[in-house]
User: Fold this.
Amino acid sequence: MPVKNIIIAGVGGQGTLLASKMMGSAFIEKSYDVKVSEVHGMSQRGGSVVTYVRYGDKVYSPLIDRGEADMIIAFEQLEAARWLPYLKPGGVLIASTQKIDPMPVIMGKTDYPENILEEIRAKGVKVIAVDALKLAEQAGSAKSTNVVLLGVAAHFLGFDKEMWEQVVRSSVPPKTVNINEKAFELGYAAMNNQQGK
Assistant:
């Protein structure tokens, strides 16, 4: 199988690293060679955090160049715009509709851009937009946004749903298993609903 490239982009504290570890576990479970690389400037809460996940028969490097990503999972709209140049033609962008103000916006030096996802879609990009924060809160914790987005992405990554659910169960703290199972289910169902439209 040729190497597949996924970029997971978010803001510190959103759980991007856990999402990449869950993906990596799933691909290893299916006997793929996997490389996961964390690339970030400031991983503390509020800073941009990006993880590269590459899998296939043989993966030599953990890095993804511009125009090479089969999928970008953005936990926040500005991160979707920031990493869009890395998406290959025909790739898919899964984006949470959440907006998190970066420091220049907080300091009043600029405004948060309007219509980010609409503008990306207008470029011909396949955009799957999900209110992942709302679904995570519905599951019982805003911190499960990452698992909601994993549920959406599972549709594109293949493998059976039960395997993904097992990966979620084995990756999160025992006391949060029920919340994260709900979060995955809500994300998975949200994608089903989009496909049914």
Summary: The chain has a mean pLDDT of 91.
